[in-house]
Amino acid sequence: MPVPTPPTPTVPVPEVRRALPVGEETPAGAPNSRRELAEWQIQLERRHFASGTIDGDWGMRSRRALRQFQLAEGLPPTGELDLATRRRLDRPVEPFIEYTVTASDMALVDPTPASFLEKSRKTFLGYNSGIDMISEKFHSRAEFIRWLNPGLGEVRAGTRLTVPNPEPAAPLRPARSITILMGETTMIVYGDGGRPVAVFPCSIARNKDKRPEGELRVVNVVPDPNYTFNPEVLREAAQKEGITRRLILPPGPRNPVGVAWIGLSLPGYGIHGTPEPTAISRTGSLGCFRLANWNARKLLRMVRPGVLVTVVPSSE
Questions:
Q1: Crossing angle (nearest 10°) for helices 34-46 and 60-72
Q2: Are the beta carbons of 291 and 187 closer than 8 angstroms?
Q3: Spatial CB neighbours of 196, under 8 Å, sequence gap ≥ 6
Q4: Does the chain have fewer CB atoms within 10 Å around its N or its C terminus?
């Protein structure tokens, strides 16, 4: 993976906002509706145990995130929303909010061309549509936003929506080390005392020969990076488009490495964002570790050069 070059930041890295109050008494009945399950995904997200996109689908990524939360809290790691776990999480407060799309939001919408050559001619690689922008802003997916808002048409400035509310309920803690479980496509961030302080689903290399193993170190962090297209590395794409020289692609959420780059001590490898957040957890990268952009931004604020990154290989 070509190493991005640091640009002048274009999209500001959001600050962690105030903590939310503790919720009401947790009901004994287990959640089973899509909305209820989404509420608990939101609560995990607020504590930085991310289940991927918030969509009410309690699948593999949600169970993995919950298992890590349970382990961190000394609970049986079942991956299920049993009463003891829900009490430890606290019932989510205001899991959904009403949001009105602003002109500033829509300024980030600028459909990204398909070809690398055309991308290199842009000044910003923005969202492809209003619904694309809103989905990422609220850590969700377009289909779920539409499910929450029946009859929703085109999203534009002034559109009022019901959206997930992933506002943090826990502060971000400094990362002391990171472990990547290749077999579970899961990244665990440890804080002081070896306690997990964040968990993120990640994507790994499709080609097993490109997957690193063992101990690495963080060497640099770059918010809102440019991306260098190297035709010697991306040969198939270069041949298809007739590209014979390096290209510099501008920053933006639909940049090939998303909104954050965390360089690792293995040359060419890093942890970074993605232009396709719904594809996280798949084996689709060229060797780097992809996170959803909102998680990549979180991690960027937690790490510093020198942090240990241990890659645990799959048992396959």
A1: 50
A2: yes
A3: 49, 68, 71, 72, 188, 189, 190
A4: C
pLDDT of 19 higher than 60: no
Residue 30 — pLDDT band, cuts 50, 70, 90? confident
Burial class from Cβ neighbours inside 10 Å (0-12, 13-18, 19+) for residue 286 reads middle
The whole-angstrom separation of Cα 165 and Cα 133 is: 15
Strand pairing class (196-201; 204-205) = unpaired
- Model confidence band, residue 23 (pLDDT cutoffs 50, 70, 90): very low
Q: What is the pLDDT of residues 243-285, one digit of tens each?
A: 999 999 999 999 999 999 999 999 989 999 999 998 887 655 6
Q: What is the mean pLDDT of residues 6-16?
A: 37
Domains and CATH numbers, the chain: 177-312 (2.40.440.10)
Confirm if 303 and 221 have CB atoms less than 8 A apart. Answer: yes
Distance CA 12, CA 10 (A): 6
Residue 203 DSSP one-character state: B
- C-alpha span between 211 and 213 (Å, rounded): 7
Secondary structure class of 262 (helix, strand, coil): strand
Pair of tokens at residue 78? 């079942």
This prediction's pTM: 0.88
Task: Give yes or no for residue 76 having a pLDDT over 70.
Answer: yes
Q: Are 56 and 37 in contact (CB under 8 A)?
A: yes
The C-alpha angle 177, 9, 269, rounded to 5 degrees, equals 40
